[in-house]
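Protocol step 4 of 6.
Sequence for Pseudouridine synthase (Paenibacillus baimaensis) entered exactly as in the expression construct, tag removed. Do not edit the line below.
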Amino acid sequence: MSWSKKGEWLELLLPEPLETELDLGNYIRMPVLFLKKLIKSGGVSIKGSRVRLKLFPNEPLQDMPVWAPLDVLYEDDFCMVVHKSAGMKVHGDGSRNGSEQTTLADAVAFYYESTGQQCKVRHIHRLDEDTTGPVLYAKHEWAQLILDEDMRSKSIQRCYAAIVQGQSELLSGTIDEPIGKDRHHSARRRVSVTGERAMTHYEVVEQLNHAMLVRLRLETGRTHQIRVHLSHIGFPIWGDSLYGGPTNGINRQALHGESLAFEHPLTGENIIVTAPWPEDFLRLYTALQKI
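Step 5 output, structure tokens:
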């Protein structure tokens, strides 16, 4: 199957003509409800083995976008991966009172506008405000439906690096502990039998001075999951004062998303996007090596 983008339309050249419109699901991942809505709105055109789908409708922005620097790690017609810096929220609370800080959503919206792309901002996952690393965006509704389903089925892989306090001879393991809200502290989460299931896989990569470099892979995506789990087993993240980490050497938790892997929504190709360590993470790592 070959394909091309023609303005608002995706054009597919299939091996043979379709018997019914619903047979499109044999060639492209297409949620049935979305396909029926597309058919009803006139967004499907079939001429023999040539099929056109209106997957890229122009979507005017709701608000005037705000400029912020944006590091694009991967981009095509369907999705984009950008690097989130420390101290930036993925999105705001929806208000515009003049005092709200610029968010990653603002930066993405401005990027779309400045590059002539009329897309709504659709993040597929989030990172904590002070965690750095790649964030995946879908450019249109169809891609969002596919990527959201992949998040639910855990086929999108997120790998992180963290510098933690303490040392251990246990080089790898899995933390399978539920996480819920801390009733004594509104900003914190804690391991709780009444919380939601949370699973984190970890591997100790290097022993440092009273610290370790750890790589982690998430099986679930609970708020503060890595921070809570590592603190729970006695290895709080360096700089993470909320969960008991030492505060010298870095002004935030030393947690960075190193890579993001996902299947392309149209082609099924395995896309792997990596993000280099930010400067503050690298400085702390170097300092703990030298001590």
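Step 6, annotate. The chain has a mean pLDDT of 92.
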